[in-house]
Structures are given as structure tokens and as C-alpha cells.
From TrEMBL:
Keywords: Activator. It comes from the Bacteria. The keyword ATP-binding does not apply. Signal peptide: none annotated. Residues 11-43 form the Cyclic nucleotide-binding domain. This is Crp/Fnr family transcriptional regulator. Gene3D superfamilies: Jelly Rolls. It comes from Robertmurraya mangrovi. It holds the Pfam family cNMP_binding.
């Protein structure tokens, strides 16, 4: 698992192999069982960041009508920032749940500061990774807003095909902003067009 992190250290820093190994050894890596809730909607979040080495984590909220709405899925090599930079007493708007057994790098503000002090290039690496992540999220959101449900599904097939098989259909439909029945019709239409 740490090989994935080593890839980023090599790409974004000029640390020696020995220093890279020291960084990897200092990271907190945790295993979570399927169904584990990392954070509940309505809790006061501790400032944390997760990085998915293996597994799938769902971000969702329960709306005013009691309906669960999926807002994102995080899979391998994706960061899950859980920040509450407005006020420390503000409640989380989202819940985060492991849809699969997952292995995550877990960071908190205090440990990150210590790591940045010990390994200054690490902060640059994290910043670059976050810039890439934010850019991707902005692009995905812009595409999402301007596309039809069928185009959204085709984008999932093209950019994140593993989600189709890894997440329940009703959660994927919620993420796409449609009903499970509409998603079934779209899938059938696409399969028919491919024949």
C-alpha cells in the first residue's frame, strides 16, 4: 500500500529514499471495515484528512425530507478532506461511510504540522496534490451542471468506471441526481446503442 504514497513522494519531492521511507513510517495508516462511519452528519468534525489507499468511501447527507443524498465517492488515490474552517463548533453537513473494507492514511492538523516541520517538502507535495484535486473537482462540477443525466452516466463510465460495479445502484443514481429507475432506463438505452 505504501508504494502508492511513494509514487507521490517521488513525483512531488526531491527527498532521498531514506527520508521518503522515514515519512512513510511516520504516517498513520488505518484499516476500516465496510459500513464504518468516519463522520456523522451533525457531529462537530475534528479537522482530519484521509487518503484512500484501498476501498471506497461515500460522502452523503440526509435532506430535510429524510432522504439520503450521495454527493461523492472517494476511491483509491483520492483525498478526503474533512475541514471545518468556519467555526470549530459548526456541525458537519455530511456523513462519510466506508462502502468497502478500506485502508486509509489518516491525518489530523497536529500531526500534519509536526510532519511539515520535520519534512518541509511534504507540505509542498500536499499542496500540489490538493491543487490537482481541487482542479479536478471544479471541472467535474462544471461538467455535471451542464450535462443531462445520460451524459453524467456516460462520464462516470468514461472517467470512473469502477463505480458502476462497486457502489449500489440507488447510491449511484442519487450521485447522478436521478432515480434508480431512471438510471436503469439509461443503462438499457446505452447497452442497446452499443449493440
Amino acid at each position: 500500500m505504501k508504494e502508492k504514497l511513494l509514487k507521490y513522494l517521488t513525483e512531488f519531492t526531491s527527498h532521498s529514499e531514506e527520508v521518503q521511507r522515514s515519512i512513510l513510517d511516520a504516517l498513520q495508516i488505518e484499516k476500516y471495515k465496510r459500513g464504518t462511519i468516519l463522520l456523522h452528519q451533525g457531529d462537530v468534525p475534528v479537522i482530519k484528512c484521509y487518503f484512500v489507499l484501498k476501498g471506497c468511501v461515500r460522502q452523503f447527507f440526509v435532506d430535510e425530507y429524510g432522504k439520503e443524498v450521495t454527493s461523492n465517492f472517494f476511491t483509491e488515490e483520492q483525498a478526503i478532506p474533512i475541514f471545518n474552517d468556519k467555526r470549530q463548533d459548526e456541525f458537519s453537513r455530511f456523513s462519510y461511510a466506508c462502502l468497502e473494507d478500506s485502508i486509509l492514511v489518516v491525518g489530523d492538523l497536529d500531526s500534519e504540522k509536526g510532519m511539515y516541520h520535520s519534512f518541509p517538502q511534504l507540505e509542498t507535495m500536499i499542496r500540489k496534490m490538493m491543487e490537482i484535486n481541487i482542479s479536478e473537482v471544479q471541472e467535474e462540477f462544471a461538467d455535471f451542471i451542464h450535462s443531462s443525466p445520460e451524459e453524467r452516466y456516460k462520464t462516470i463510465i468514461k472517467k470512473r468506471p469502477q463505480l458502476v460495479d462497486r457502489v449500489p445502484q440507488h447510491q449511484l443514481a442519487s450521485f447522478l441526481g436521478i432515480t434508480p429507475e431512471s438510471l436503469s432506463r439509461i443503462k438499457k438505452r446505452i447497452e442497446k446503442d452499443d449493440d
